[in-house]
Structures are given as C-alpha cells and as structure tokens.
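FYI - complex with coenzyme A, inputs then prediction.
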Amino acid sequence: MEGKTIAHSRAVMSQIMLPSQANPNGNVHGGEIMKMMDETSYVAAVRHAHTNIVTAGVDELEFHTPVFVGALVTCRAELVFIGRTSMEAFVTVEAEYPRHEAPPINALTAYFTMVALDDDGVPCEVPPLILTTQEEKERFDRRKAVYVRRKAERKAEREANRKDGT
Ligand SMILES: CC(C)(COP(=O)(O)OP(=O)(O)OC[C@H]1O[C@@H](n2cnc3c(N)ncnc32)[C@H](O)[C@@H]1OP(=O)(O)O)[C@@H](O)C(=O)NCCC(=O)NCCS
C-alpha cells in the first residue's frame, strides 16, 4: 500500500461560537468543541484512508482556557501515528475573538484515535504514514509507545473480564 504524508491529510475547520452552544454565562460547552475536534480528526483520517472511519478513543484531552460566545474556533488535525487499522490525530483548538485585535489563544488539545472500517464494518489496513522530518519521526515513536502500552492494557482488561465472566 502506498504511503501518504502528514500534509496530505492535514485538516482545518473553523466555526463562530453561538449562544445556543453555550451555558447562561456564555461559556461554550466542552462537548460542542469536542464535536468539532472529532469531525476534524475524521477529515484527516478519511483523507488518509478513504474508507469508513469511526472514533475509537480520545487521549489527553485538555481544556487550557475557556471559550466564550463570539469566538472564532479553529480546529487543526494532523496524523501523528498509524497502527495497522488505526490512525491517531493530534488536534489543536484555537479561539480568536475577531472583534478584538488579539492573537488566537490555544484553547484545547487532544489525541483522537480513528479506525478505518471496510464495507463489512471490519477494521481494515490503512496506508503507511510518510514521515519527512526528525520531529515527525520522534513524535511518531512517542505515540507508538503510548499505543503499545494502551493496547496491552486493553488486552489485560479483556482477559481479566473473561476470567470474571463479565
Ligand atoms: C473501534 C472498533 C472498530 C474497534 O473494534 P475491535 O473489535 O476492538 O477491533 P480490533 O481489536 O481489531 O481493533 C482495531 C483497531 O482499533 C484500535 N482500538 C480498539 N479499541 C481502541 C480504543 N479503546 N482506543 C484506541 N484504539 C482502539 C486497536 O488498537 C486497533 O488498531 P490497530 O489495528 O492499528 O492496532 C470498535 O470498538 C467500535 O466499533 N467501536 C465503536 C466506534 C464508534 O461507534 N465510534 C463513534 C462513537 S459514538
């Protein structure tokens, strides 16, 4: 399978935050932004794999600063690690208040794991990720270590549940 670069699938989505997305104090609900992050990750993954894609997990989701109604929220997703059927996107979220002359604020970050499914709904192999810089290679290795650890933890949990009969 032919590999694809990170740039090939990089995705960006922007949206103005409206009162219907916020609490009575004007704070935008976390779920509204997480939905945008999920969609942006989906775009990166589907551009890479060209299959059906589902979200398998979210890692290290952090809300760094509150986001208020009127913010122009921009989500950026890029693939940082590829397993066999899974793809991990690092997603950053910036909030900008266009009525004020101020630089965008780093609001959220997270890693989304997206899985490619074939037409029968079975996880299927995705193209390799072509890494072009030393930074990309180091980040890939760091995320691979997390992937290997999490996979082993899930397996151990499944086996423990099987023994318990749960
Ligand atoms: C994600 C899903 C397809 C995995 O199915 P599965 O039967 O566990 O399949 P596998 O064990 O072969 O795992 C497939 C891949 O998913 C990864 N994966 C499975 N569970 C995961 C989790 N909780 N977090 C991160 N990755 C996960 C595996 O590591 C594997 O990746 P790899 O091939 O690169 O090693 C399945 O759990 C699913 O359909 N979940 C619901 C997805 C969904 O509906 N998302 C929308 C949210 S509402």
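The pocket of coenzyme A is lined by residues 54-57, 83-86, 113, 115, 123, 151 (CB under 6 Å). The helical segments are 6-9, 30-49, 134-164.
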